[in-house]
Design goal:
With 140 residues, the protein is an alpha+beta fold. It has helices at residues 52-64, 114-120, 124-137, and strands at 9-19, 26-33, 38-40, 43-45, 66-81, 84-98, 108-112. The chain is globular, with a radius of gyration of 15 Å.
Amino acid sequence: MSSPHETPVQAAGCVLWRRSPVDGELEICLVHRPKYDDWSHPKGKLKRGEDHLAGAVREVAEETGYTARPGAPLPTVRYSAQGRPKEVRYWAAESVSGGFTPNDEVDRVLWLSPTAARARLTQPRDRTLVDALLHTLHPA
C-alpha cells in the first residue's frame, strides 16, 4: 500500500482523435501494450523537468507515430501503479499526420468509434476520458 505522503508518479497522455478517412465520423486511437496486455490511451511518464503538455505530445508520437495537435485539457486520472500513486494529465488531441509502426511499448493501435473505444478500453477509469472528449468536441 502506498503512503498518502508519497509523491505521485507524474505522467501525461492524450485522447487522440481524428475524423474517419472513410465516412468523416469521429474515431479515437487506442494503443495495445503487450507488456500489460491492455488497451489504453497513449500516455507515459514525464522526463525530468518536462512540461505535462510537452510530455503528452511526445508520448503520443512515441507510442502511435502520429503528430498530435493538443486541444482542451481533460480530467486528470489518479490511481495506484505497482504500489505507487500515479497521476496522469490528459488532453484532447487531434491526429494531424503520421502513421503507426509497431514498437517495443505498443504492438497495435486501433481507430475506433467512441462507443467501440469505450468497450475496448481495459480500465474503466479510461472510459470517462472518452466521455470527456465527446463533451469537449460537442458541448451541449
